Amino acid sequence: MFLNINLESSEPIYIQLQHQIIEGIAKGRISPGDPLPSVRSLASDIGINLHTVNKVYQLLKQDGYILIHRQKGVVINPEGPPKADEEYKQSLRANIRPLIAASICRGIEEEEFLQICKELFNEFKEEGEKK
Amino acid sequence: MFLNINLESSEPIYIQLQHQIIEGIAKGRISPGDPLPSVRSLASDIGINLHTVNKVYQLLKQDGYILIHRQKGVVINPEGPPKADEEYKQSLRANIRPLIAASICRGIEEEEFLQICKELFNEFKEEGEKK
DNA sequence: TATCTGTTATATTATGAATATAACAGATAG
DNA sequence: CTATCTGTTATATTCATAATATAACAGATA
């Protein structure tokens, strides 16, 4: 896999895992229909507990990122998660707001902030075109 | 004060407080040199413990947002926090990245994301001009 | 002198993150 | 049929963090 988990980070393991899998989907490194490792094999690959991986899979399932069939195992949802509704956008704003506030206090202008966002979007686009 | 703390939220109280004070500075609701309430009075105003407020003040002091004089009490730092260096921008990118990844998966295009950021910046600008 | 300030110390409770071990039921390969 | 692998559930333990409670100290102030 493309996973790079830092066991020493203050960021919880299950959050890192969740983020990196979602980023993998956004970048097209894993495509709709692709299988994901079993909770046990992924856990032993990374060197963590089975339950930590299971927790992540449950969260991803709940958000519509993956499907879990008793037979086929774990698969990237071909449909993808539901489109962003107003509630989602509201929570998105709530997450960005403190980042912008701190940036303003540190002298990062709107232009520069938007530029950083554009560069991040390019990070995802470029990878998507490699395939 | 302009504080609105949700004691039921899963977001820790000290994080809410920290964010709202920084947002207050970014919006110009509190200006450089302005005093902040004492740890005890603010704590009793909100209905929380003195140590929770003290923790927030220590974090804000550490980041250069406020100054704590033995005499004058707590004051918004006239200098403000240090300008964003490359390390800060790196952590900023790390914070924005998962938001963008999830947005892409949910069908939010770059344009719309940037538009949301612009609106948030306006949130801060508009308030700043009221004074 | 009494009061308010930030600060420090100590202890307790509650919650969440992560682990360990075990077991169950369904599917699959030998 | 048997053995193995799958996700799932249950239970328990360890550890760190968030939040509280109570107390005390030293400097400044009225």
From TrEMBL, chains A, B:
Gene3D superfamilies linked to this entry: Winged helix-like DNA-binding domain superfamily/Winged helix DNA-binding domain
All residue ranges annotated as the HTH gntR-type domain in the record: 11-79
Keywords: DNA-binding, Transcription, Transcription regulation
SMART domains recorded: HTH_GNTR (SM00345)
A Pfam match: GntR
Keyword Ligase: no
GO molecular function: DNA binding; DNA-binding transcription factor activity
PANTHER family membership: GNTR-FAMILY TRANSCRIPTIONAL REGULATOR (PTHR38445:SF12), HTH-TYPE TRANSCRIPTIONAL REPRESSOR YTRA (PTHR38445)
Record protein name field: GntR family transcriptional regulator
